[in-house]
């Protein structure tokens, strides 16, 4: 399995050879990738990228998948012009790099994107999904932003917000059983805290045998034994959004 023998804070897996069907736009001080369905809709999803940034083809592929399911999808540059992480970078410098890109400090950008979706796209039912760094950002937003309806956190790094579990909106958490950077004991702890403190609908699901990034990273043709779980994760994500948007 490509690149999976080399442990790192965020497994790059395999990049899709994918160009995207949407377009890049400027939304006030933020660049963003936007894709819209052919039929008009008032439902939209904000897609929060991982450490590899808003231009990663894998993330745009998922945004376009949302559009084929009837959603306006927007993937903003939440690093706001700062360079995304590259697999060739020195992983020893990763923690210092991460300090300047805080998943809990994206509220200004989210407000700008929400205004754009409402005013320019006619959306009034808006959810959010995110991967890894973006998954942690989803949990942050579900804890504090009253304008979002629901969220899906895909292998969000729990340690960033592990002491907070009183969610405002229904939230679905996706994890891989073999994720090297999110141990199952952290997932168990999250479930316990949600059970104690959360008053809205939530679900925590662990997918057997899957490593970090499996929903938007692994290539089905390279990892055929993982294909059912990749497809299940994507279907679960769409079903959750359909339920609450």
From TrEMBL:
<dbReference type="InterPro" id="IPR029058">
    <property type="entry name" value="AB_hydrolase_fold"/>
</dbReference>
<dbReference type="InterPro" id="IPR042946">
    <property type="entry name" value="CMBL"/>
</dbReference>
<feature type="domain" description="Dienelactone hydrolase">
    <location>
        <begin position="30"/>
        <end position="245"/>
    </location>
</feature>
<protein>
    <recommendedName>
        <fullName>Carboxymethylenebutenolidase homolog</fullName>
    </recommendedName>
</protein>
<dbReference type="GO" id="GO:0005829">
    <property type="term" value="C:cytosol"/>
</dbReference>
<keyword id="KW-0963">Cytoplasm</keyword>
<comment type="similarity">
    <text>Belongs to the dienelactone hydrolase family.</text>
</comment>
<dbReference type="Pfam" id="PF01738">
    <property type="entry name" value="DLH"/>
</dbReference>
<dbReference type="InterPro" id="IPR002925">
    <property type="entry name" value="Dienelactn_hydro"/>
</dbReference>
<dbReference type="GO" id="GO:0016787">
    <property type="term" value="F:hydrolase activity"/>
</dbReference>
